[in-house]
Amino acid sequence: MLGRKMFYSAALMVVAALAVTLAAGCSAVSRPAVSAGVQAMPAGGGPSGTQPVALSGQSSQPVAPTNRGITVVGVGKASGTPDVANINVGVETQAASVQQAVDDNKAKMTKLLDALKSLGIADKDIRTSNYGVYTQQQPSPEGKSGAGPTSYHVNNQVNVIVRDVAKLGDVLDKVVAAGANNIYGVNFSVADTSKLEDDARAKAIADAKDRATSLAQLAGVTLGEVVNISEVIGGPGPVYSVMDSAKTGLGGGGAPIQPGELEVNMSVQVTFAIK
């Protein structure tokens, strides 16, 4: 009996030692580390009905990529010599009676129009811009009280388009000789501005690319392709302005005229991708 008890005690001690050894071995096995933002889920998926859990406060929804780009405004300028002139010329007459003033004005204005047509100005380029009749009270003779006599004035003006700027000086001389005593509003333009606009637009695109390239270099990124482009229009269209020129006045024996240069400004907004 005593021998059997000793046998059982020894067996229990061996089993206990094996259990301790197995527990120590299991604790020595390292578990794989789980990084922040990675879901703690076995490769084969969790139990049925369970959802993956995001660690470290990270959202389980995918984050949409951010559109990256550089947007700039490029400016381009192009200049050309005006080839069209627009002037207002007219005749103002004065008489003691309104009918006399009208008749005098008609005779002088007919002579003026004939002079314009003799210079090759087409009828379509001559348009009446103003016709008016008004009275003016003359001062009383010295030493007399009350108002003086009434005079009548007639003013007739036409807008003239001169399509050969080189002839403008001669045109002005001829209309004055024909009786014109009102000349004002001499303006210059280019008949077809499409070429100037194309040149200015091309320079605006080049300017936009230069600006975007500089910004990309400063930011340490690489400039990509154009993703969006549009013209920037602050008013009804491209901006035109007459610039001073070092050129001499128009030749010939007419009045000295300085046409200068016409400048066209264009702006474009361009967005470039970032590689």
Keywords:
275 residues; alpha+beta; Translation Initiation Factor IF3; Alpha-Beta Plaits; four-stranded antiparallel sheet; 4 helices; 8 strands; elongated
Describe the structure.
By secondary structure, the protein is α+β, with helices and mostly antiparallel strands. It has two domains: 69-81 and 193-274, 2-Layer Sandwich (Translation Initiation Factor IF3), CATH 3.30.110.170; 84-189, Protein of unknown function (DUF541), domain 2 (Alpha-Beta Plaits, 2-Layer Sandwich). The protein is 31% helix and 31% strand. The chain has helices at residues 2-28, 98-118, 168-177, 194-219; strands at residues 69-80, 84-95, 126-137, 150-162, 182-189, 223-232, 239-243, 261-274. The strands form two sheets. Strands 1, 6, 7 and 8 form a four-stranded antiparallel β-sheet that branches. Strands 3-4-2-5 form a four-stranded antiparallel β-sheet. Helix 2 (98-118) runs antiparallel to helix 3 (168-177).
CATH superfamily of the largest domain: Protein of unknown function (DUF541), domain 2
Please report which band the strand proportion falls in: under 5%, 5-15%, 15-25%, 25-35%, 35-45% or over 45%. 25-35%
Query: What is the helix content?
Result: 25-40%
Structure classification: alpha+beta
- Topology as a string of helices (H) and strands (E): HEEHEEHEHEEE
Could you name the CATH class of the largest domain?
Alpha Beta
